Amino acid sequence: MNRIELLAPAGSMDSLYAAVQCGANAVYLGGNKFSARAYASNFDNENMKKAVEYCHLYEVKVYVTINTLMKEKELKEALDYAKFLYSIGVDALIIQDISLVVLIKEVLPDFELHASTQMTVHNGEGAILLKNKGFKRIVLSRELSLNEIKYISEDLNIETEIFIHGALCVCYSGQCLMSSLIGGRSGNRGRCAQPCRLPYTIVNSISGREKKGYLLSPKDICTIENIKDIIKSGVTSLKIEGRMKRPEYVAAVVSSYRKAIDSILKGSDVNIEQEKKKLLQLFNREGFSKAYLFGNVGKDMMAYTFPKNTGVMLGKVQKDLSITLQEDLSIKDGIRNGEKGFTVSKIIQNGNEVLEATKGNKVKLKPADFKNGDILYKTSDVKLLTSMESIYKSPFGKKVDLDLKVTFKLNEPIKLSTIYRKKQYFIEGELVQKALNKPVYVNKLKEHLEKSGNTPFRFTNIQFEDFEEGFMPVSSINESRRKLIESIEKDLLKVNRDTSIKMLNKEKSVFAEIPKYMVCVNTIDQMKATLENGFLDVIVDIFYRKGDIKDESIKENNVWLKVPNIIKEEFSAICSKVEELLPHIKGIVTANLGILHKFKGKTTIIGDYKLNIFNPTSAQFYNDLLDGTCISVELNKSEILNLTKKSKMPCQVMVYGKIENMVSEYCVLGSTFGGKNASQNCSRACEKGTFYLKDRMGACFTVNTDKFCRCHVYNSVPTNLIDNIDELEKADINNYRIDFIDESYNEVNNVLKCLKEKKWNGDFSKFTRGHYKRGVE
């Protein structure tokens, strides 16, 4: 069976110690910048070097996240940082912005690169593309099933990494703009405000039906019961999410999964139910899910009623305010009562104060912040947390046992030798002197040689090849032992890398022109209004569930075809459809990496804005794949001008349209109105009305589905830069994208008439300029 890597999060040095001491094979962490967890503690350069050295002493690998989108002004600093990480021996970088791939492959071509889950790799063709572009490992989207993971990992022989525990995003990672467009905090820049954890109301605007709750808040993933099946899939690395979690959490989760993995690989015993119960106590949102490993289970994977740590049920409060415990309880344990919480200060059992009580006991608690009928949940277990704290407080508690051979002869140097990883290490110390008073006895000498201190190594099997009674100062004995261990550590910490190697990047130098205006539609009425206004470069989305544009209209009008940005098991069917329409279309528009790889050179391909092209160098990455692209909608005016000026590839700017905030494998319509769960499919509720999500502030976000039952949530108001086209043209920007989502014939007609005049003639209060003025931090 293949070697499996257990990969743990490290948001702080204590979390790093916890991960290593509890059995992680690798850790991932971020520096002070360019990390998708900008609000974690993260590591400055000094601590980063310390972290790498500590991990390498235990032969644990270190992967550093530089997994945010980069502004051009940040690229030099990011590359310099990559050089620093390379020089101190970091094992690999986890990257989102492909501009860094271009730069790193030029100056550090042997630095191992992993494609972040933010790159949204969810099909085999996309994985092949990135492997061919120089990525050693692909961190797959959380939305894949075990069969899809097996196909990419085993059948295609691609090194993969998947999440096995922790928070699950409701949107495909790398495709979410919700936080960015609502509050200016970009998830692509590591500053997600987690709007998915807020309450929403889903409304059918035709029937008036609505449902409320935390409708976009998924349960955390827990796969500890499925480790055998996961290992069989051929995946290389099993990743625990949690760089924002405390070190006690990291210690407990890593130790549980270490036991589960070892039970499969080594046949050791483990009580999985007991470990799962421990994981539930640490953190859960209304229980756990298995993400999409065994299919899409709809509302069963969601935490509709409470978005934070639910805890485990402690008991129901009786009339006399007593509770019959369903879990053990100790002083200082944390309790939740609805939205409120408190820490237990007193436990009263049979009229006496006790420090702890066991399951089944009837007790009263102080403070009595509850009433008859309330259900209490235990959200933290002080005994569990204290036991986990003791682990990371002893960063060298785990030891590697070594054999030691000793020669201790009069008038000769003390000689110590050991073998580690098939290499022999040898040291000669000071001369053994004649004992004038008390000689060094064998047991005393062994006692000093067995000491280990702040090192992973200790000598447990000590054999004397020769021993004569003599004398040597304790300090000299200790120094010999230290030197022998230091020689092993020196080898483990050796960094031998050449930062002067360069590799020239091949790029396309000439691009054909692309249309000035490209208008995306999904209904025949929208298409009709577009053509009537003289806009002939129409992008047709035939995969929208309620779309009514037929193949005949496509063939008659020589349009562009919008291919979904997310394509999983339907990949072959979509490719067949594209192949069928290729003779009748001008080209395709997509942000799907698999489609780029499949149709490269077969037709004209324009990149969609969800490719997240954020700077001129990221555009360069796609030079051999694209003929033009719509750039990121998170850029401000100056960044747009800079990118389009410096990019050789033709670049489009989105000047009108509701931006897609989220695309999700989970469908909020099918799961709420349609009742979709693990045992039943939805009733196609999406076909029985028009829908929107309403937030706490009353903003309404359009919700659509596609023909593959994916859910698309669009911004509450369209972006409208029509009034800004003149200034964009003066800056030599000549390519524009217009998207229509749910607009009627008349609305499309009005927008396009304004577009021809480059002036908006109506009320602007129902529109936004998006990030055009301010951009994202």
From TrEMBL:
PROSITE patterns: PEPTIDASE_U32. Signal peptide: none annotated. Residues 376-491 form the Peptidase U32 collagenase domain. InterPro entries: Pept_U32_collagenase, Peptidase_U32, RNA/ubiquinone_mod_enzymes. It comes from the Bacteria. Pfam families: DUF3656, Peptidase_U32. This is U32 family peptidase. The lineage of its organism: Bacteria, Bacillati, Bacillota, Clostridia, Eubacteriales.
